[in-house]
Amino acid sequence: MKYNAGVTTVMNSYKDEENIQQAIRKFLRWNFLPILVSPLAWIDFGKSNKRLYKYEGRLLPPDNSGNWLRINRDNADSKMRNYLDAGQLMEEKINSRDYEVWVNSKTNETKLIPWDENKTIELCPQCHYKTFEKDLRKTITKATYSSGGLEEKYDLCKYCGYTISHGTQSTPRLVRSSSSSSSGGSGRSSGSGGGSFGGGSSGGGGAGGRW
C-alpha cells in the first residue's frame, strides 16, 4: 500500500527518534484527507499513531531539572561510540535495544536510557548484554533425496560468543515435487501408478532459528 510505503520511507530517512516522530506527524497531516477516502489505509494510520504513542516517552529527560540535553543521532557530530560501549553497540546493531543518550549541561553527567526493541533476544547469562539469541539451528549434514540430514540446535550470544548446545536432531530427506516427475513431455503422468514419487515420507523437521 502506498501509505505504508510512505511511512516506511519517512522512518528510514532518519536515525534519531525525535526526528522520526516529527516526520511521521507531518506525513500524517499531509495525508489525512487521502486516508479518509481509503478505508484500507486506516489500519496503517492506526499503526502509525500507535507507534507514536509507544515511543513518546523516549523523549522525556531523566528528571525535570531542565539541564538534560538529548543527543540527536542525525547530528553529524554525534558519535555513539563516544557514549556506548562495545556490547551496547552490538545491541543496537542487532536491533535488540536502542539507547537514548542524555548529557547534563551543568554536571556533564551522561545517562543512557535503554529501550527494548526485540523481545525474542534475551540477556546473555555470561556478558549480560541483550545479545543472546535462542533456538538457532546449524546444518551439520545436508539432507538429500535419498537420506535425511542432521542439524544442531543451540543458543548464541552475538557479542561474547557464549553458546549453549541443545544437541542434534535429524531432518527429513528431500521430496521431489510432483511437477518434476511429469516434466519433459514424455507422456508419463505424475499421477500414474508406476511413475509417481510416492515412496518418500516427509517429516516435521525443525524450523530455522536475533544493537
Give an overview in words.
The chain contains six helices and seven strands; from the N terminus they run ααααβαββββββα. It has helices spanning 2-12, 17-30, 32-36, 39-54, 86-93, 178-181, and strands spanning 68-70, 97-104, 110-116, 121-122, 132-141, 149-157, 163-171. Helix content is 27%, strand content 23%. Strand 6 (149-157) and strand 7 form a beta hairpin. The model is unreliable at 184-211 (pLDDT under 50). Among the domains are: 2-55, no CATH class; 68-117, no CATH class; 132-171, no CATH class. By secondary structure, the protein is of the alpha+beta class. Helix 1 packs antiparallel against helix 2 (17-30). A four-stranded antiparallel beta sheet has the order 4-5-6-7, with no helix packed on it.
Q: Name the assembly state.
A: single chain
Strand order of the largest sheet: 4-5-6-7
Classification by helices and strands: alpha+beta
* Count of runs of 4 or more consecutive helical residues: 6
In terms of DSSP E residues, the strand content is 15-25%
The CA-CA distance between the termini, in Å, is 29 Å
List the helices and strands and how they pair.
Layout: H1 2-12, H2 17-30, H3 32-36, H4 39-54, E1 68-70, H5 86-93, E2 97-104, E3 110-116, E4 121-122, E5 132-141, E6 149-157, E7 163-171, H6 178-181
Antiparallel strand pairs: 1-2, 2-3, 4-5, 5-6, 6-7
Helix pairs in contact: 1-2
